[in-house]
Structure formats: structure tokens, C-alpha cells
Amino acid sequence: MGFGDGKVVDIHTHMYPPEYVKILESRTTMPLVRSFPGSEDPRLILLDTELPLLKEAEAAKSRGETPTSLPGRPLTKHYSSLSQKMHFMETHEIDISVVSLANPWLDFLSPEEAGPIAESINADFSRMCEEKCGRLFFFAALPLTAPQDVILSSINHVAGLPYCRGVILGTSGLGKGLDDPELLPIFHALAEAKLMIFLHPHYGLPNEVWGPRATENYGHVLPLALGFPMETTIAVTRMYLAGVFDQVPQLNMLLAHSGGTLPFLAGRIESCILHDGHLHHAGTKPKKTIWEVLSSQVYLDAVVYSDVGLKAAVHASGPDGHERLMFGTDHPFFPPLGSDEDGEWESVTWNGAAVKKAFGYGGTKDEEMESEEGKKVRGVMGGNAVRVLNLRRDGCR
Ligand code: URA
Ligand code: ZN
Fold first, then answer.
1. Pairing of strands 164-169, 136-141
2. N or C: which end of the chain has fewer CB within 10 A?
């Protein structure tokens, strides 16, 4: 992508290891994988908004017909093949990827199966990283439906894996959201183990907010463009209001999609707290301001596809905000529709171009690379991730 000699690091990039796909294939409720006549690839069906189309397609299939619209997205080799991930990295000149299990992680497993499956999936990621020594690191998945002692021992276990740099977490936590006091021991354990939480949405907003025309007419646009970012914003704001950042000051979080809408709404959150009679009388205002949290405990990815959102993310993250932002791709989601999936992905080039534009940087020549803007661009494209997540691995062949 042309960012000089700095390393390009993708911190937002997912995989479903083959074992996870098998679990989805065996399921009868969402999330699941299903094959339909007329579709070469099986369909990966994840989101609640996909349920009406799933029902229609299953009904057509049971009548022996080809469904007119297919639910979900094609489950291509991009989702579980390591060689495809490496090919994608080569195509886009990405030196290092910090891979994570994609949504909805292990959130749907029974309490008994969650622990062993988490161990096995994390071992898959660990093996892949080992094989590509120094090119891959990972965020582990936690068995959040298991009893607390199992979750804590999983944190202990992944903290010892040489390529693990944190955990990926959805917004439901133990089922009641991230302001649940029962999560505090888990947040303490993650902070103590110096494991970054990569917070990622999955559940979106209730289907009704999209209106009656959405399923038939608007594809995935509303839940992905708006539902996902609002979900993240709400989850972090609830954590903030519950005082989690005050109580666990060493907790570090990396927020997907540049924090949803948090950079844009932080001032409004701050003002609503200041003017809230209930918080005022109860004396339950968070101790740190939201701006303090954003500039000390929160990192943002740069997966927002425009310099406008990125500028807000940099400004919201404090005086050294450019040091808290990290490039990502969201591969294998958002493949190109009109061109070869093995070629260049617009979802990647848009994010790269947005980083350059956000810092007013147009150059490729050596002297421009050394400018202040050039350094900031290289930081966001990879330098920040290498520093914050310690992405160095000695002894690789
Ligand atoms: N859709 C998903 O379900 N997950 C992502 O990460 C991106 C798009
Ligand atoms: Zn993602």
C-alpha cells in the first residue's frame, strides 16, 4: 500500500478455524451454516436481521425450490483458510496480522462445552501463529458461558501462549452486558495479565428499529453501518457509567470501528452526566472524565473508511491521539463484489487512503515519509500496534 519502510499491521482481521465451522454446520439455530440450491458456497448466517430470509430460504428448499434471496453471506475459503489469509496479506502488503475469532465467538456454547472448545480454538490460533512465526499474533476467545473459575483459568492459560496479545470480547459479557459487576474479577484478571480487550459488536440493535422495509430492501447496510457502531458505543458507555475504568485502572481496551460513535458523542455523554439529577444526588458520577478514559485506557481501530471519522477518533483520543489509533481491515468481511476476491479489496484500500487523508499526507517520497505527517501515518498503519501490542518475536526462521 506504500507506507515506506514502516511495518503495516492489521489488528482487526478475523478467522473461523475449520473446527468452528463444523460447530456452525451442526447447529439448527443461529449462528449456523447452511447450504441451499443455487448457491455454490454454503451460507454463513450470523445476525438476527438474517432470520426472516433464513426462514424463507429454508421453506423454499423444503419445497424443492431454489430460494430467490439467500440469507447471510457466502462462506468462502477466506473465512477459514490460513493460506488465504496469507495471500490477502501479501496482496495488500500487510506485514503482520493480529487475528481473532469472528463473531459471535463462543457466546452460544453451553457452560459445559465452552471451556474445552475455547481451549481447542485458542490452540488452533496459537498453532497458526507458530507456523507463520512473527507474521501472525492473535486475540484469544474466552469461554464466557462457563463458570467463573473456568473463565479465569482460560485467561491464565492464554496469557502464557507466546503469540497471544489479548482477548476478543463481545458486548454481552456474561449475558448482562459489560457493566455487570460479575465481570469485575475478569476485567481485573485481564488487566493483571496485561491482555488487551478487543471489543467487537455482534448483536446490533433490535430488528424493529430498522422498519418494515429493511429485510427486503436494504440488505445488511443498516445493521452493519449503524447497528454495530451503536452497540459498541452503548456497551462502552455502560462500562464507563458503572465505573469500570475507575475500578480497573490498568484495563486496556481496543474498540472496533473507531469506537462506534464514541468519539463523536463523548462530549454529549459528558454533558448528560454533568446535568443528571440522579447521578448528582446519588454521587455516582464516574471519577475519570470520558476524555481521560479515551486518552489513557482506550485504543481505537481505524476501520471507519473515511478521514472524517478518523479525525474525530484522533481528536477524541487526547493530545497524542494519533498514537492510539491502529489500522485494520475486517477481513474476511466486506469482500469486493464486482471483482476477483483474490485481488485488491476496496474495504482495505479505503481504510489506508483514509489514514493518509486524515493526516493531510499525500507523499510517497523518502523525505515526505520523514515528515511529521508521514510519521503519524506510519504509526497508525503499524508502528502503534507494534509498540502497544509488543508485536516482536525473536527466533523466527
Ligand atoms: N459482519 C460481521 O458479522 N462481523 C464483522 O466483523 C463484520 C461484518
Ligand atoms: Zn470485525
1. parallel
2. C
